Amino acid sequence: MAELEVVVTFGDEQRESMVFLVAIDNSEENFYALRWVLRHYFSGAANPGAVHKLVVVYAKPIPSAVIGIGGLGAVDVLPYVESDLSKIADGVIQKARDLCVANSVDDATFDVSQGEAKTVLCGAAEKYQADMLVMGCRGYGAVRRAVLGSVKDYCTRYAQCNVLIVKKPLNTYSSA
């Protein structure tokens, strides 16, 4: 597979410094997107002289949303769910940090914000004045996206920046 050259332009101007906001969760697809951004925008060979900023954002679910409506005893489990969600967030951020350091990006910003992924990501794009929001593609079908909703669909409509969806090559998806 041939490597492609990526040149980012906005209107008539080509930017030498951009803010990339990468959405991350525990999925293989979003880590592939992070690796893709690191390879295409943050390696010295990719953009000599360019100084980009990388912001990695993890949207931590609200504990009550994970439990559901609740019932008797739901309040008792809330602290345990919160603790587990925090441990998951810490693990995901550490994995992303390790990937960045392995690619010689030591100055990335890591942001864990609690809430629905779509609102967290759009809010972070505005907060960090991102030039591009980068997300992985899970390859869900139209019916599943319609039932579950799509974070990518929402972000492409409402984020205050460009949105890049990075797809893994088809031969790298597992047959599960």
From TrEMBL:
InterPro entries, alphabetized: Rossmann-like_a/b/a_fold, Universal_stress_UspA, UspA
Coiled-coil regions listed in the entry: none
UniProt cross-references to Gene3D superfamilies, sorted A to Z: HUPs
One protein family per Pfam: Usp
Ranges for domain UspA: 20-167
Protein name (record): UspA domain-containing protein
Species of origin: Vanilla planifolia (Vanilla)
Upper taxonomic lineage: Eukaryota, Viridiplantae, Streptophyta, Embryophyta, Tracheophyta
